[in-house]
Amino acid sequence: MEEEEEEARALLAEGTDGARSDAPVVPAASAALPAFCGPGRLAHRLLVLLLMCFLGFGSYFCYDNPAALQTQVKRDMHVNTTKFMLLYAWYSWPNVVLCFFGGFLIDRVFGIRWGTLIFSCFVCIGQVIFALGGIFNAFWLMEFGRFVFGIGGESLAVAQNTYAVSWFKGKELNLVFGLQLSMARIGSTVNMNLMGWLYSKVEALLGSAGHTTLGVTLVIGGIACILSLICALALAYLDQRAERILHKEEGKTGEIIKLADVKDFSLPLWLIFVICVCYYVVVFPFIGLGKVFFTEKFGFSSQAASAINSIVYVISAPMSPIFGLMVDKTGKNIIWVLCAVVITLASHLLLAFTLWNPWIAMCLLGLSYSLLACSLWPMVAFVIPEHQLGTAYGFMQSIQNLGLAVVSILAGMILDTWGYLFLEVFFIACISLSLSAVILLYLVNHVQGGNLNYSARQRKEIKLSHAG
User: Fold this and answer.
1) Average pLDDT, integer, range 111-116
2) Does the model's pTM come out above 0.90?
3) Whose CA is closest to 332, among 201, 209, 454, 190?
4) CA distances from 150 to 11, 99, 119, 163, 422 (A)
5) Which residues are CB-neighbours of 459 under 8 A, at least 6 positions away?
């Protein structure tokens, strides 16, 4: 106990002027130690930030393993596109429910540290089961692995955000969220460009392609999940240590989920939900099926198809923080959402009906995807009371996952029956519905005198007038 108190005094005394008259003289190397080990110091918080970023790296890396290995999975497991897309649907199904309760489990049941460890374990176990399904030539086992993986994946993202708020609230929080999102996109990008190459190396080592080669490749890819679990363990230790030294509270999500609040949701909020679902179902399922599309229609090699299929994530990594800052500075959220949806529509029209170099369309899709995320999600806070935010965001994520699950299955069926052109027409219909919802939202907001399209200056003036 005395040692703990001495450590606390040493770390908490670091601040004031750096050198008190009664402080002992210590060597330079020893003096530098508290700067890195003190929970309140910048160097220590940067270490925590690094661990937070890599905490989600593994789950995002492995989420799109099927997309990176689309040809190999379908060939080695002898499945059609409909069954292949079930690997994405099974990920989404548990999150239709868990999006409501992930925050509750972290706040009231497990706590942030145990919750993060448990969800990280679900991600690791799910990836192992997924890989074993390949090794034992059991596609049902691969599906079950994706279901288990999904239980941990989305809830781990909630835990990651909770850690960020706990350590950085009032201190660069928006930047931290941006960096975490960028690292997630880097994980997806590395997966898209690495797994196909890794499969070929395993194939050369084992002497032939097949379900065993697929399973071994997925096992090796699962190392990224182990990395995330190690980060979860390190974060749990550092957070507990900071709580003991700084007497800070354990992080909580602050979410309050009340399903009864759904009946009070306004028309603008329901339109935001429609925009969200209809937009994201034309992005993620398309990426899941994109590699073969670029190979068949444009004659790309497997490696080149993987590269172009990952460009959405490559662009999103640096552009998400930049667009976030731009929307913060300008306001006008509906206009930015409108721009994002129109550009996405143009992207899919180019892919469907032209033979233009697909890099153009995919770069447009990457820019619009980044812009929409920065402008759409914050609008929820403008149309609903603060005490209902947890329910609103939980419901939004829930129906997003429901939409992704259903559309993943539909996309596979359409592709098996009619081909990629009809699949693109389906995506164009979905994004057109999203565009209609944006236009209707603009009109409703204008008629009701809402604040969704206020400039940043107008919002600041209103905030000041309320404060006065």
Assistant:
1) 88
2) no
3) 454
4) 40, 11, 10, 20, 29
5) 331, 451
